[in-house]
TrEMBL record:
Residues 1-29 form the Dienelactone hydrolase domain. Keywords: Hydrolase. It comes from Escherichia coli. It holds the Pfam family DLH. InterPro entries: AB_hydrolase_fold, Dienelactn_hydro. Signal peptide: none annotated. The keyword Hydrolase applies. This is Dienelactone hydrolase. One of its GO terms (molecular function) is hydrolase activity.
Length: 30
């Protein structure tokens, strides 16, 4: 869902996943 060069790319899912990833990094790695 995060590869924007394929038809299965889902921008809303990719955006949400990126937000969650950054939040996790902030919580556990900072």
């Amino acid at each position: 869902f995060h590869n924007d060069s394929t038809p299965r790319y889902d921008k809303s899912a990719a955006d949400l996943a990126w937000q969650r990833t950054l939040k996790w990094f902030d919580k556990y790695l900072s």
